[in-house]
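Journal club side-thread
Mid-discussion, someone asked how the predicted structure for our own chain would compare to the paper's figures. Pasting it here so we can look after the session.
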Amino acid sequence: MTRPQATVLILGARGRLGLAAARAFAQAGWRVCGQIRPGAPAPAVPGVEWLAHDLQDTAGLAAAARGARVVVHALNPAYTVAAWREQAPGLMAAALALATGLRATLMLPGNVYNYGEDMPAVLQEATPQRPRHELGRIRVALEQQMAQAVEDSGAAMRAVVVRAGNFFGASEGTFLDKMVAPQLTRGKASWMGDLDVSTPWAYLPDLARTLVMLAERDDLAPFEDFHFAGHQVSARQWLAVLSQVAQEQGWLQPGQALTVRRVPVWFFRLFGLASATLATIAQTSYLFSTPHRLDNTRLVQRLGAEPRTPFELAVRQSLVAMRLPLAEAPEALAA
């Protein structure tokens, strides 16, 4: 059970994971303090106290979130190597300062960038991290920065990394809404990588509920690393669900499949010469063609089960979040 007056501070609470975490903690009965940039509009989320504080004002932010025993690091620079190189260490330093000052547990959503192209098919917490690209090396360094801060703090703070695959389930900013489904109403979809390769996908509401479940435990070590398995699916499984939805909506004829545009890696490499974002995507494109899955044995041992919305329902709910013009949402979505 949640302790009375349990408080969480979510950094970057307007972002994809941040907003999902704010909803999940609020629904679990926590006092939720959501940090947003000064001047940024506050989303209409029941139960969230929005704190318009500059992240560098750690003293003011800590005072506003007084009593918080968990800090969720949901801050992300722009998706370019340069932005991550320049900003990520400072964002982590601010998060660590807040967690230390509040004597709280810092929670970080990790990812599989930490592993290189030679990664094994099954990724466990002890799997060696040998990234071959700079974004992966930055992610490894951030986790090392966390571990060192925990050691240096004595008992002042704790840290938890929850590693997950590709995010989906937000209204914007994920592979689903940026690449796969923008042309769904025209009976088309795009994909990068092998259509038959199975990879891990993290439905954000499930991942957020996992953060809540871990935050409510009292048996965590000073530094913990867990793998969140999520949905292990291939592109063909994605396309099968999306085709079904398109048929139901009349965007495709009954029995008709989506027209799939395959986007080759060379496209991102070539146009990455002019776009830093596309160049960054090219660095991690191997993740869509290299079979891998996250072993969640440790997480299940600790929690008993990993939150898991059925894949088809998760996809449908994600399309609703994207505000696609769905004629009628299934009853399950309304629930």
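Post-session note: Confidence is low (pLDDT under 50) at residues 329-335.
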